[in-house]
Amino acid sequence: MGKWMTCSILNDLPSIIAMFSSKTLVLAITAPLVFFLHALARGAGTELEHFVDELRAGELWAIFVLCAFAEIVWWYGKTLWEFRGKR
């Protein structure tokens, strides 16, 4: 059964990569927008201080922005790594 599951995953790999590409595109648009809109609502301090304070408080928007930025960095890092390997 493991052999067939592996074959199925490898067969669907292009569609999985396309799904991650689409997700990265959506996150690359929404995450900075959410960050910017919530940074406008901050009181005193910098945007980064406000973001860290909200992240420590467990605010959903801050967790979303952190995960989105991590996924975007991972995607571009993976893409650059693959591009470097082809040269």
Return the average pLDDT rounded to an integer. Answer: 79
Count of distinct strands: 0
Strand content: under 5%
Structural class, from helix and strand content?
mainly alpha
Tally of individual helices: 4
Shape designation: elongated
The radius of gyration is: 18 Å
Order of helices and strands: HHHH
Poorly predicted ranges: none
Distance between the termini: 37 Å
The major sheet is characterized as: none
The proportion of residues forming helix, as a percent range, comes to over 70%
Protein architecture, described:
By secondary structure, this protein is mainly alpha-helical. The protein has 4 helices and no strands. The protein is elongated, with a radius of gyration of 18 Å. The protein starts with a helix and ends with a helix. The mean pLDDT is 79.
Summary, kept brief:
The chain has 87 residues and is mainly alpha-helical. Helix content is 86%, strand content 0%.
Which keywords apply here?
87 residues, 0% strand, 86% helix, single chain, mainly alpha, 4 helices, elongated
Question: How do the helices and strands line up, and which of them pair or pack?
Answer:
Elements (H helix, E strand, L loop, with lengths): L1 H10 L1 H28 L6 H10 L3 H27 L1
Helix pairs in contact: 2-4, 3-4
